[in-house]
Amino acid sequence: MNTTPVTSGTAAPAAGQQAPAVGSVAATAPDTIAQLSDVSIYYGSNHAVRDVAMPIAENQITAMIGPSGCGKSTVLRSINRMNDLIPGARVTGSITFAGQDIYSPQVDPIAVRRHIGMVFQKANPFPKSIFDNVAYGLRVNKMTDGLQDRVEQALRGAALWDEVKDNLKKSALALSGGQQQRLCIARAIAVQPQVLLMDEPCSALDPIATAKIEELMNELVNDYTIVIVTHNMQQAARVSHSTAFFSAELDDAGDRFGHLVEFSDTNKLFSNPADSRTADYISGRFG
Questions:
Q1: Where are the domains of the chain?
Q2: The whole model's pTM is what?
Q3: Which residue ranges does the record assign to the ABC transporter domain (predicted)?
């Protein structure tokens, strides 16, 4: 597996060089780029998500589905240590990336987020120009050699270049919602991560903009590994290779917690789920 360690001091790729990626979405068994093992997530004394174990396949799209409050986004944020930013949050078990436990004391969380980028539910462009939005992470990570080329490459990768190339100094806030979300994708891929986490990236978009994002994901997966949280089961069925179904359960004390019910090939999960709770959810009988 051709991946890069996430300790601090990792050298940045040269301008124009694509992030390391191995394999494709072919029929051969994919490599595992990350692995969650017995992962539990706490907010203070609240045991919010319990005992999650699942692989993340390289250069494939993994979807997480389930009802509100089942821990999908919480698990997603744990994969690049975004939960570290929430007071009282902690993670037990292990999450490995490129063979390293990303929660090891020797691992720099900022380096983790450089290699595992994130796109949020609501487009969140900075109140800066289109160019400066994309260049922001490059400057923070001191990847400023060939800055113009890097920004163009990221905008092309997000299928936005042709729409904005003559207005790079224009405020990003003037873009449409769909364009803003693609700008956020460009900002995420500009630093050439290996994994791209997407938390409900289409929930605020109309069907046309949603179709563009889904088409873009199908293109990006040739160069990146994608993990997406979505409430839209049809979207998961359309774009993903593997799907994890989460449910919200009650423990003996009556406390609610998120639980991974089933993880499988997407076609199998939707056509022949192994667990009756999965079948009930995808058929609309609950959730």
A1: 32-122+195-282
A2: 0.87
A3: 34-273
Mean pLDDT over 16-30 rounds to 44
Residue the block writes with tokens 């997966």: 221
β-strand pairing of 32-43 with 89-97: antiparallel
32-122+195-282: what CATH class?
Answer: alpha beta
164-203 pLDDT, tens per residue?
A: 999 999 999 999 999 999 999 999 999 999 999 999 999 9
* pLDDT > 70 in the chain, percent: 89
**What integer pLDDT is reported at residue 284 of this predicted model?**
82
The length of the chain in residues reads 287
Half-sphere exposure of 261 (CA within 13 A, CB side): 23
Kindly state the average pLDDT of the residues 242-266: 94
Residue 20: exposure state from Cβ atoms within 10 A (0-12, 13-18, ≥19): middle
* Residues contacting 162, CB < 8 A, separation 6+: none
Q: Report the alpha-carbon distance of residue 258 to residue 276 in Å, rounded.
A: 17
- Strand order across the 61-65 sheet: 100-101, 89-97, 32-43, 46-57, 256-265, 242-250, 61-65, 225-229, 195-199, 116-119
CB 112 within 8 A of CB 97: yes
Phi/psi for 168 (5° steps) reads -65, -25
